[in-house]
Design brief:
Elements lengths: L1 H27 L2 H21 L6 H20 L2 H18 L12 H6 L1 H28 L2 H37 L12
Length: 195
């Protein structure tokens, strides 16, 4: 359970701006307010990491940079279609980034990195495929529905598809990792002793 929560924390942190955007849009029906809230949260996340002198990885920088760039363009154009299509650009960029083997290591506890690094690479490519699928679906929905309907459909699909893939990946990696340890294919380092 500890490993699941470790991975879920990073996933939730990367998705926080998008989740806040959808919530504010749903409650206020105000696209510009939702964009501003998402941008503010993205900047606050970076500031929080910097204040705590924590390393900020490429995925976090990418996510925040895209939220700020897209939000700024939305404010300048005042066109809701831009903000509706922006996630497709983001998903394609993230999908391309996810084609790099090993990108997922940040999200994995050490035991997973030790026992199933090859499975993690495969799931990295599966995640990339999900990003490309989501980008395509977003274009179809954005061009055929209003902003509120788009927000509901894409938030439900986005959260459900990511959560579903996350849980499937966790279960498969855990099953394979435990099997490898039992068979002796992988020898884990001894646990640190409590002093």
């Amino acid at each position: 359970m500890k490993e699941l929560l470790h991975s879920a924390r990073y996933l939730a942190e990367d998705m926080a701006s998008m989740i806040l955007f959808v919530i504010v849009l749903e409650v206020s029906h105000n696209t510009l307010l939702a964009v501003a809230a998402g941008m503010a949260l993205g900047v606050a996340q970076i500031a929080w990491h910097m204040a705590r002198k924590q390393k900020i990885d490429a995925m976090t920088w990418l996510s925040v940079a895209l939220v700020i760039a897209g939000g700024t363009a939305t404010f300048l154009t005042n066109d809701p279609r831009f903000v509706m299509l922006k996630p497709s650009v983001i998903h394609v960029i993230i999908g391309v980034f996810m084609l790099k083997a090993g990108w997922m290591n940040r999200y994995l506890p050490q035991i997973a990195q030790d026992t199933v690094p090859d499975v993690a690479i495969v799931f990295g490519f599966v995640w990339s495929g999900l990003m490309f699928l989501t980008a395509g679906l977003n274009i179809v929905i954005a061009l055929n529905y209003d902003a509120l309907t788009w927000g509901k459909i894409m938030s439900i699909f986005g959260i459900a598809s990511m959560a579903g893939l996350f849980l499937i990946q966790f279960a498969i990696m855990r099953f394979i990792g435990e099997r490898r340890v039992r068979r002796g294919d992988v020898i884990l380092p001894p646990a640190p002793s409590a002093a």
